[in-house]
């Protein structure tokens, strides 16, 4: 598991806020991203369901899979 750098949590929160502000968002590609344990934080406030979510080469934790 690759750990996020110190201060990255604030960046993830800013990204989550920006994603939630996109009402027409339909597709996301987080391929090769360091998301372990953070999917719920990033995607939990989306206003509409995604049609496509790519998570290739992402190490997901059980909590991420439970969120999905």
From TrEMBL:
Localization of this protein: Cytoplasm
Keywords tagged on the record: Cytoplasm, Leucine-rich repeat, Repeat
InterPro entries the record matches: LRRC14/PRAME (IPR050694)
Transmembrane residue ranges: none
Entry keyword Zinc: no
Superkingdom of origin organism: Eukaryota
Main subcellular localisation: cytoplasm
One cellular component term from this protein's GO annotations in UniProt: cytoplasm
Protein name (database record): LRC14 protein
Organism listed in the record: Trogon melanurus (Black-tailed trogon)
């Amino acid at each position: 598991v690759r750990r996020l750098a110190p201060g990255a949590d604030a960046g993830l929160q800013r990204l989550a806020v920006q994603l939630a502000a996109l009402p027409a968002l339909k597709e996301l590609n987080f391929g090769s991203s360091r998301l372990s344990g953070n999917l719920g934080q990033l995607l939990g406030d989306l206003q509409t369901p995604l049609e496509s979510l790519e998570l290739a080469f992402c190490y997901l934790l059980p909590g991420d899979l439970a969120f999905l």
